[in-house]
Model the fold of this input.
Amino acid sequence: MDSISTSVARVGSRSRLTARVAALPGTDKALLALLFGAALLALVLGLVGGFVTALARAGALAFFPDDAYRLLTLHGVSVFFYWLYLIQAVLMLVLAAAENGRGLALRPLAWTGATLMLAGFGASEWISATGTPLLYDGSPELAADDPRSVGFFALGYLLLSAGLVASAVSGIATVLQPRLRGEASEFTSIGFALFAWAGFLVVSAIAATNAFLPGLLWSLGAGPFPADHGTEWHILFHNLHYLPLMATVLVWYVLSEQLTGVKSIHGARLSKIVFAAYLVFVPPTSLYHMFLEPNLSESVRVIGSLLSLFVSVPTLAAFAIIVSSLEASARAHGATGFFGWMRGLPWRNPAMANMGWAVVNMMLGITFAFVLIQEKLAPMLSDTFFVPGYFHFFAVGVLTQTFLAALMVILPALGGGTLWRPELLRCMPALVTIGLLVFGAAGIAAGFMGVPRRVFDIGYDGIAPAAWPVLMALVGIGATIFAIALSVSVYGVVRTMLSLRPSLEQAPVVDWRTGSRGVGAAPAWTGPLSVAALVAAMYVFTIVAFQLIQSSPIIAIGGGHGH
Amino acid sequence: MSERHFTTRRGFIAALGFSAVSLYGAWAAYGAAPLPFGGRKDAAPEPDAHGGHGAAAGMAPEEFRFEHDFFVQKYAQKDGSVNPHADADAHGGDAHGGHGHADAGHDHGAELTSVEPVDVYLMAQKFAYSPDVLRLKAGVPYRFRMMADDITHGASIQLGSASRIIRLRPNVVTEQSITFTKPGEYLVYCTVYCGQAHDAMHGRIIVG
Done:
């Protein structure tokens, strides 16, 4: 018996989250709508840039080198900085406002933050499209004879950073307000996570300022050439790509409650510890990005290698909490069968479909991330197409799909409209994942063979292996599939945002809040088995990589591989 | 709480977060674990006692440039390639061994009976390598000394089903001990974006 009793929520009923979003003051709604719109614009620009880049690498389009690298710059800047950070800022603000129940605190600061971020967005997009291509890390050494490009590029990120700080301070003040008013004695787990997330945004903004202010000063003739930009970038970059993962996990918490009524069965304290763990485990693990640096000391190499094993601790723990809570609650409602409980989840809701497939993509991404971070394997894989091959599982499959899921829940409440064609939207995450599987499989194979990640013409006068262009063509096919599917999702979200027609019909949710049986009494094996499968996959691909190294026709020591 | 199945208890859930740490076992099996237990050694066996480290200790950029220029001049071939065994080949020398370039002063390749690795110098600059074609021998250990002359580059070697990625920072001399175990023609290419003609930046290592 796989059915679950009393599982469907009443049509037209609003959850606490959507009711509070709907009740926000008009000025807050205007700010949030502005930021949601800007974030989606950044996603569209990044998606177009990435799609064209993939087609050019596949040989389907031809560009002059500078134009090709401008496209790549536009792709990285738009997606990695402006989509992921604008959407984080606005989700942090809207969730904080909903948590508070009375809208945003320090509203002028939140508006100032939005203005700064949008100014940064404009500056970055303009210089990426017209200046010396600097890729998304903006290395000044690429434009030592073009201070204007370096300066405007740095200015864009600095404005974004300043805006993030202002938004984060407003967000922190907002989640603190109930306590200051004496309406709450402690944070909820979501409130605590928002507090930590906002704090982490401030830390990242400081790291960004540390990385890019020297470039701006140099371009103005007010400072020396920023020769150590690479090191500062590594520190920033590590935080930059784990912060969206923390945001993703928080959104999963929120959406799980929204879509099923289930909160963690393990108590708020464990959730708070897990969110705090991001601050403990993420910053120290940044050393593994430097394994290829020729002057990295042996002690740093050993410590970095050891710490890298711990980078997934908070994410896997949060995953285990969510899955265990959902499974235990489903079983308390009578669900049986090893995995049968999952059929009770509201899969017809596009937000649920996006979240569910995001979890699948996370498993794939983590598997290969742990191959790359191995100190001895880094000299085979870093700087190759292995990197985009695996991180698109994260950037597209996990982060983007999760944030789109949040938009599918929040935007109808914010604007009072209706989710656009949920039956169509719910099919897209599977299609995105199919595209990512093709893209990732070909990209990862290409990376193992050494295809460089930032080269458009990989012919090398006919010396390159014949398999390289074939693999890049497959990458282009995979990119086409997931770009089309993602475009449909983005279009649906934009139509939802612009929708002004309220509807009583809402995307389906279930209510597993209370069960007839004791929650947690039945075994919940889905989480442990998923993690076991993940670790097994990590073992397999790590062994494959070691075997490839051992079978290669050289014996090499040193150069980022020392002992 | 005591009625809960162990799979739904907090301690078990928290422990799951640490699951990936168990990958240490796979690393240890290949001698790549960072701590002494499980054995910390190189994934590939070291052919000589020299070992290796990223940056070549003590070699200044100016010294590298001098040695590089000398290396290229001394071993330049008519076809434009550079062959550090040219002298020994001309005198019917042993194909194996070779004297460390730096250790031997400027008498490169003159004492090919030694087990010391043969020094090879590779300079990366926009948008080429110097030398761009190297002629080496299988089974001979080489001490590659490499440096980027202007901005950051890569000097990566394509090895069939795998590759060896090397990142070169400007004015930092990077050292690798490399022994090619099979003859063939290997592509050397830049894996760090370095500007407009980055795609064209490549060279060859021809191993006989």
In short: Chain A touches chain B through 101 residues (CB under 8 Å). The radius of gyration of chain A is 23 Å. Chain A has one domain: 23-551.
